[in-house]
Design brief:
glycosidase; hydrolase; alpha/beta; globular; EC 3.2.1.139; about 30% helix; Glyco_hydro_67_aGlcAse_N; eight-stranded parallel β-barrel; signal; binds alpha-D-glucopyranuronic acid; Chitobiase, domain 2; about 850 residues; six-stranded mixed sheet
């Protein structure tokens, strides 16, 4: 294989890549850069056991240096005096005669020294040595040959990922809750898969960014994971991940003693239940001797839990803590996502956001010492903007783990580029000011602020079998950055991104600049075109959490309310007049949020119920800010496809095209979002946009206004997700329909970009062709099933609404535009509108 890369490069071609190696590609450096480097002559890994992370480190280093430098180094496990890279633990290194300076390594930390042709990578433990090796490899792969000597320690001991993978029934691939990259790499047919190649590749990615633990199954746990076949399977998963220093744990279903064990109760204080869990823990330990721990979702979203038996949440957590205690250092991660999803909106004081503190505040000190509480970053649910969960300020005697989400459940589901570290950093850098002392969230979850041994990070990642892992090459920057921030939360989000970009796509300045600019613009843009001023994501919360559907927030028991009416909007979470939520923060923070004047604009509607005409600090009214922000955010997304063109030819065509497709899709979907939200609030408030853009689309031809043959007009639900609130679909499931329009005097002779908005629904691959005066402009297929990897909806709505362009078309008044749609299966070639756009116009 080796000569292929230089040959392709010489020909100006870049080899196709499918993303499987993510940022660990070890792409060859240019020859002149290779020559400048002094690479030691051999590798000494001070552990010869194949399951040891130090052994793995030696192998990985060999592979990396072969790829990056085309040097085939010999790996041994006996120390040498010659030029070498030595990898080992402090104990192994010093006992074989190695000398170290004064260093203070914490668990998983490492010492890295690069001097001339001698490199020492010394870990506090085996895992640390592997992390140091990946750090060295990352430098080499980026062409960084600086001499260094430093120690590096992780900010927190717990740095885990959570997979929400399901053990579906026989005959199905394991699905993943909120996973957007194909089925599970762990489960199929209700069992653990035989071939665990992807599992160890996943562990390799995790290790390379310092992650040390994983929960492999959904928090909504299936009890069958605990049957004897699957117990053995769990042992195999742990074996596959162990050489990478990744420890495995599982989510438990609280009701298992009843559903699996056939007991009459799951009461945490019942002797039979205690015994049952004790036996399970023993069994788990027999199969997985270094079992990491259990994650428990209880009394949440209608699930049973200790409260079902009139016991406290601490009783529930301690049940598991005591069951696993005899078997090593496994821990219980008890989720604070405990709330009632059937609360009553007619009660002005009711508030789901209050739940975590209400449930947990008085339990501080009541948990056993091997329990940590896992807390979502905000009090609701991974929204585009939330205040920090106030619970972080209340647990002084129990460790807190912050739960982040790499999977973009509410943030575009990997179909939209949203670089998340800037969001995470607003949370991690927030000062809770507990007891009037500096209390940054990152210092709370490091264990430092309250002096806790157990604390840290968990992120819902949800990789799938897709070779890109997350379904979108660019989404992987979030995974990479998650590990880097869990290790060192003060790291700069731009430099992390630049490292990732160099490792993933190469060091060309144009690549780095393009990806950095787009990524750093992406979260603010997404917030702008989805939900701003702290109103939350405004997506369909009772559906797939993807496209716009603001009305789904209200009128149900889920408590993600906006309380929008004809005059006003927002949740009153003040103490003086509202739900009292602001009082859950320390006094200084509470005072800031209590007062509308001192609440930051980006959280205004989170904390206050105000008229649409309320003036913001910017001087704009709330409603005008909504309109403007949605136009601004969508406009930024329109620039992404063009920005991406700058990297054409600099990266392989395969990855270039896949990303290009998604950015173009995002640009179209951002317009769907913009129009839906603006139309919805215009409709509700009757307040016009000062710039008269909302509801006014000068370049559109509505499908329902076209001459239809074999097509029929439909009312789209929710109304705001279709232009003019209507669309069309073919009258039959089998016969093509035609929609025709003659261009009126708006369209003077010239060059136009023609955009067609249609709905790509689940259950078929409809075929479309567009003509101008009988000349075909092109065809397309409603195949997001294949191109996005999934289709979020079976209906024409805000999830399925999408746009395709035919650019540079010569057209004039009187020309006849025609679209022929051929239905397929349940997809009746639905259309919304056509925009005939003069150059530079967005409509
Ligand atoms: C969200 C998400 C669910 C998930 C839940 C949880 O509500 O939509 O799919 O089960 O969070 O975190 O437990």
């Amino acid at each position: 294989m080796r000569p292929i890369i230089p040959l392709l490069t010489a020909l100006g071609l870049v080899a196709a890549e499918n993303g499987i190696d993510a940022w660990l590609r070890y792409a060859a450096l240019p020859c002149d850069v290779q020559k400048a480097a002094s690479i030691p002559a051999g590798i000494v890994a001070l552990n010869g056991s194949e399951t040891s992370p130090v052994f793995t480190a030696g192998q990985e280093l060999h592979k990396g240096i072969l790829g990056i430098h085309h040097k085939d180094l010999v790996v041994t496990n006996t120390p040498t005096n010659g030029s070498s890279i030595t990898i080992g633990t402090v104990d192994a290194f010093t006992s074989t005669g190695g000398a170290l300076p004064e260093i203070d390594l914490k668990g998983d930390g490492f010492w890295l020294s690069i001097k001339n042709d001698s490199v020492q990578i010394v870990g506090q433990n085996e895992r640390g040595a592997l992390y140091g090796t990946f750090q060295y490899l990352s430098m080499l792969a980026q062409g960084n040959f600086t001499e260094v000597a430093y120690e590096s320690n992780p900010s927190a001991p717990i740095r885990w990922v959570n997979q929400w993978d399901n053990m579906d029934d026989t005959g199905t691939h394991g699905s993943i809750e909120r996973g957007y990259a194909g089925p599970s790499i762990f489960f199929a047919d209700g069992l653990i898969v035989e071939d665990l190649t992807r599992v160890s590749q996943y562990a390799r990615l995790m290790a390379s960014i310092g992650l040390n633990g994983i929960i492999v199954n959904n928090v909504n746990a299936n009890v069958n994971l605990l049957n004897s076949t699957n117990m053995a399977g769990l042992g195999r998963i742990a074996d596959a991940m162990r050489p990478w220093g990744v420890r495995m744990g599982i989510s438990l279903n609280f009701d298992s003693p009843r559903t699996l064990g056939k007991l009459t109760t799951a009461d945490p204080l019942d002797e039979g239940v205690i015994q049952w869990w004790g036996d399970i823990a023993t069994d788990l330990h027999d199969h997985v001797p270094d079992f990491a721990g259990v994650l428990v979702k209880a009394n949440s979203e209608s699930q049973p839990g200790p409260l079902t038996y009139n016991r406290t949440l601490a009783d529930g957590a301690n049940l598991f803590a005591r069951a696993i205690k005899p078997h090593g250092d496994a821990i219980v991660m008890f989720r604070a996502f405990v709330y009632d999803n059937k609360i009553n909106q007619t009660n002005w004081k009711a508030d789901r956001a209050n739940a975590a503190v209400d449930f947990f505040r008085d339990l501080d000190g009541k948990f056993d010492d091997n329990v940590v509480v896992q807390i979502k970053y905000g009090p609701i649910d991974f929204q585009v903007r939330e205040p920090v969960s106030p619970l972080f300020g209340h647990l002084e005697q129990t460790g807190s783990v912050i739960e982040l989400q790499v999977t973009q459940e509410y943030l575009g589901q990997q179909c939209h580029l949203v670089y998340l570290p800037p969001l995470w950093k607003t949370i991690l850098n927030f000062d809770m000011k507990v007891d009037n002392k500096p209390s940054l969230v990152r210092d709370i979850v490091s264990g430092e602020r309250f002096n806790q041994k157990l604390a840290g990070y968990a992120a819902v990642v949800n990789v799938g079998t897709n070779t890109t892992w997350l379904g979108n090459h660019l989404a992987m920057s979030n995974f990479y950055a998650y590990g880097r921030l869990a290790w060192e939360p003060t790291s700069d989000d731009v430099s992390i991104l630049e490292d990732w970009t160099r490792l993933t796509f190469g060091s060309d300045r144009a690549i780095i600049d393009t990806i950095t600019k787009m990524s750093m613009e992406s979260w603010p843009a997404h917030e702008n075109y989805t939900g701003n001023l702290g109103i939350q994501s405004l997506t369909d919360i009772t559906g797939p959490h993807y496209g716009p559907k603001p009305q789904s927030q209200d009128g149900n028991g889920w408590g993600q309310w906006t309380r929008a009416d004809a005059n006003s909007i927002g949740m009153d979470r003040t103490v003086w007049n509202g739900t009292g939520y602001s009082g859950q923060y320390s006094s200084e923070v509470a005072a800031m949020y209590e007062d509308v004047e001192t609440t930051p604009d980006d959280l205004l509607l989170w904390f206050h119920h105000v008229p649409y005409t309320q003036k913001l600090k910017s001087g704009k009214t709330v409603i005008q800010h909504f309109y403007d922000a949605h136009y601004d955010g969508a406009a930024v997304a329109q620039t992404f496809p063009k920005q991406w063109e700058a990297v054409k030819g600099l990266i392989d065509t395969e990855r270039y095209d896949e990303v290009a497709f998604r950015l173009e899709y995002q640009a179209g979907h951002a317009l769907v979002w913009r129009d839906a939200i603006n139309d919805f609030y215009f409709n509700m408030s009757s307040i016009k946009d000062e710039q008269d853009r909302v509801g006014n689309h000068p370049w559109r031809i509505e499908a329902e206004d076209m001459e239809l043959d074999g097509y029929t007009v439909i009312q789209v639900d929710p109304f705001e997700t279709a232009s003019g609130f209507h669309g069309i679909r073919t009258t039959s499931n089998t016969t093509a329909g035609t929609a025709t329009a003659t261009l009126d005097e708006r369209f003077q002779a010239g060059t136009y970009d023609i955009a067609v908005n249609y709905f790509d629904v689940k259950g078929g691959r409809a075929n479309y062709e567009i003509f101008l005066n009988n000349g075909s402009l092109g065809t397309w297929i409603g195949n997001h099933e294949d191109k996005l990897g999934y289709t979020p909806s079976s209906y024409p709505d805000g999830h399925s609404a999408t746009r395709i362009y035919f650019r540079g078309v010569q057209a004039a008044t009187g020309d006849v535009l025609r679209i022929v749609g051929r239905p397929d299966g349940g997809e009746q070639a639905p259309l919304d509108y056509v925009s005939v756009l003069p150059a530079g116009t967005i409509d």
